[in-house]
Amino acid sequence: MKVAPASCCVSIIFLLAASSLHFCKAQLLQHSKRSLQFEFPGNLSHRNCGLERNSDARAWLAKIEIFDEAENTVTRCYGSVISNRFIITASDAGCVEEEAVASQVSVSFAKSGFRSVVKPSRLIVEPQNPLAILEFESDLLKDGVVPICVWNQPIGSPVHENGGIATIVGEEVSASRKVTAGKFKVVSNEECWEAINHGSFYFKSNDLCLMYQEGLSRVCLKGWGAPMQFKIGDRWFLRGVNSNFFNTEDKSAECSYFRIYKFTDVARYIKFITENTDIKLRELATDFYFPSNLNHADCGRVQNNNDRAWQVKVSVDYFVCYGSVISKYHVVTAAYCVNGKDPSDVIVTFAKNRFQIQESLRPSEIVVHPQYDSESLQANLAILKFDRNLLEGGVLPICLWNKPIEANGSLITDNQGIASVAGEDGNSGKKVVGKFKVSSTADCKAEVNPQARKNFKDPDLCLIYQEGVSSVCLRGWGAPMQFKIGDRWYLRGVNNDYLSTHKEVECSVFRVLGFTDVARHIKFFAENIKITPKPSIPQNYRSYPNCGVVHSDPGIQLAFRGTDAKLRDFPWSAALFKTSTTSPPEYTCTGSLISKKFILTAAHCVYEARALLPPQALIVALGKEQLNDGWTSDSGVQLHSLRKIIAHEEYNLDDHRNDIALLELNRDVEFSVIISPVCLWFKTRNLDIIQGWNGTIAGWGLVADYDTGNILQKLELPIFSIDECSSIHGKESYYARKLQQSPSFCAGYLFKNTNPCNGDSGSGLVLQEENVFFVRGIVSETIARNVYGAKFCDPEFPAVFTDVAGFREWILEKAGKPMKQIMAVCRTERVWLREILAEFLGTFFLVFIGNNSVAQKVLSEEKYGQFISINFSYGIGVMIGVLVAGAASGGHLNPAVTFALAAVGKFPFRKVLYYMLAQYLGAFVAAACTYMIYIDALENFDEGIRQIVGEKGTAGIFATYPQDYLSLGVGFVDQVLGTAVLLAMICAITDPRNQVVSRGMVSVLVGMVVVAIGLSLGYNCGYPNNPARDLAPRFFTAIAGWSFDVFSYEYWSWIPVLGPHVGALLGTVVYMFFVEMHWPTAVKSS
Question: Where the protein is mainly located, per its record (predicted)?
Answer without folding.
Answer: membrane
